[in-house]
Amino acid sequence: MRRAKITGTGMYVPDRVVTNADLTQFMDTSDEWIVQRSGIRERRWIEPGQAPSDLARAACQQALEAASLEVSDVDCILLATLSSEHDFPGTSFFLHEKLGAGEIPCLDLRAQCSGFLYALSFADALVVSGKYRRVLVVGCEVHSTGLDISTRGRDVAVLFGDGAGAVVVEANDDPEDPSGLLELRLHAQGRHADKLWIEAPSSASSPVRLTHEMIDDGRVFPKMEGRFVFKHAVRRMPEVLHEALSAASIKLDDVGLFLFHQANLRINEFVANQLGIPPDKLFNNIERYGNCSAASIPMLLAECARNGRLQPGQIVCLTAFGSGFTWASAVVRW
Ligand code: COA
Predict the structure, then answer these.
(1) CATH classification of 3-172 is 3.90.1150.10, yes or no?
(2) pLDDT tens-digit profile of 173-183?
(3) Single pTM value for the model
(4) Atom in ligand 1 nearest the alpha carbon of residue 23
(5) From ligand 1's centre to the CA of 36, what distance in Å?
């Protein structure tokens, strides 16, 4: 039976490091508050002139190189983001041009912090069905240009960073090679859409999508009910993780590495404790990059591929929760 397999990973973050101490220039906050509540010490912000598609391109080029492929070998590009370069067309089209992707199809997926796992799931379906052999799956975010970095927005602004991660998903038809995506489970609950969102601009706002008043009121910045989101994340992540493992007939103890979306170190430690996951099976990088939404999981994969944490044959479990609400989990044999 054909499986879809990740054959290359890549990541890119801008050079500009913004520490918690740097944020105190803009808002009333402290390194102590941020580290204690979220585990974040620094994040990356783009420099003027850099676009989301530049970050995505660098991550994709690394992933293609790791898979020993050229962009001309790829059949389709799926890009997950919540911070689109323009309202339309999607970021994937700007990436498409920068990669020189000819005339292959591309599209943006909007499932926020679970976006990469949603995109991976669709890539899996496209490959397993035989529609495509190779799909480039990208998570890419530039949050820094959309944050309220005054004290008014400090609860959200300190959490987010810019970055991109990418993987190549390829068909694996080798009966001797058991590696591949074993199970992917996706969920959503639109009821809580406004618990973590950006209200404006909005095409539901008539007669115009964006007004001076919306800007003055800060409705163009992300808003979050932090405690509400936290409560749902720590319930949904274990739930979907168990669901995916059980569908793949894999025991929790047989998982070699757990990679969770990097929203908050406290959420990940809480979930790991709840499940009895030993700390050495959990890898986090939020301390250095903050929450990069759809880019977080492919960035973790790229770092683990490079630091030797991902070994052939190892079972890896990827789990995310985010705005929408969305939550998802994938079980992968590396
Ligand atoms: N620096 C200093 N103080 C801050 C601050 C900051 N950056 N942000 C908020 N505060 C203050 C608040 O104003 C509040 O002050 P008050 O008690 O005088 O009113 C106090 O700190 C506590 O705020 P609160 O929002 O209740 O903190 P919290 O313990 O809930 O932690 C989060 C806030 C955001 C870290 C936490 O709720 C969280 O992690 N939520 C989930 C986030 C998440 O996962 N989001 C993404 C999902 S993809």
Answers:
(1) no
(2) 999 999 999 99
(3) 0.97
(4) 7
(5) 10
